Amino acid sequence: MDLNNVWNELVSRLSREIAQHLRNENGPLSPTECAAEIGCKVKHVYKLIATGRLRATNISDSDSQPRWVIRREDLEEFLDAN
User: Fold this and answer.
1) Torsion angle, CA of 66/70/74/77, rounded to 10 degrees?
2) What is the pLDDT of residues 20-33, one digit of tens each?
3) Domain extent for 35
4) First vs last C-alpha separation in the chain
5) CATH number at residue 75
6) For the chain, how many structural domains are there in total?
7) In Å, how far are 27, 30, 58, 68, 82 from 78, measured between CA atoms?
């Protein structure tokens, strides 16, 4: 592999990582990501959602298995209130 190919691969990889980071910075959070941000267990985030203390949206296509996402604004509002 020549130096030019190595450079192109490095630039491509960094571009993908930066794009992923920006998507995560601005997009909604999963309960796991939310738990990591506030320093608690995922189980606690689910309890906060179930009790209505933390606003979340179910984006699941089925009724049997919810798939929650939390907007950053809702997390900030929760943190400000607590």
Assistant:
1) 100
2) 665 566 789 999 99
3) 3-81
4) 55
5) 1.10.1660
6) 1
7) 17, 15, 18, 16, 6
3-state secondary structure of 69: strand
Tokens 């950053």 belong to residue: 72
Output the CA–CA distances (angstroms, integers) from residue 36 to 33, 41, 51, 58, 60, in the order listed: 5, 8, 20, 20, 22
pLDDT of residue 8: 78
The model's pLDDT over 31-53, given as tens digits with 9 standing for 90+, comes to 999 999 899 999 999 999 999 99
Q: How many other C-beta atoms are found inside a 10 Å radius of the C-beta of residue 17?
A: 10
Query: 71 is written with which tokens?
Result: 């907007």
